Amino acid sequence: MGKAVTWTVRLEATDADGRIVETTEIVSISLDLEKPTGADFGLKLSEGKAVLERLQTQITQRQVDDASAMSRCCVACGSQ
After folding, report:
1. Taking a C-beta distance cutoff of 8 angstroms, is the pair 11, 26 a contact?
2. How far apart are CA 5 and CA 28, in angstroms?
3. Which spans in 17-74 are helix H?
């Protein structure tokens, strides 16, 4: 069995007090160190694009959800 290492990228959302309110795993990347070549190190372009796309999706969705929750108001009395 070869030696492997795994990196996990997580995105954490915190509230105004710095408490973590949500953690989302963006990607896990593994490298088998048994016989690596130069091409095995770092992110391939496609992997980097996938990480960026997932980050953008998660951040944008959280921002939309937060903005939507803050702008809701009661149709009966108008309070938020």
Report:
1. yes
2. 10
3. 45-71
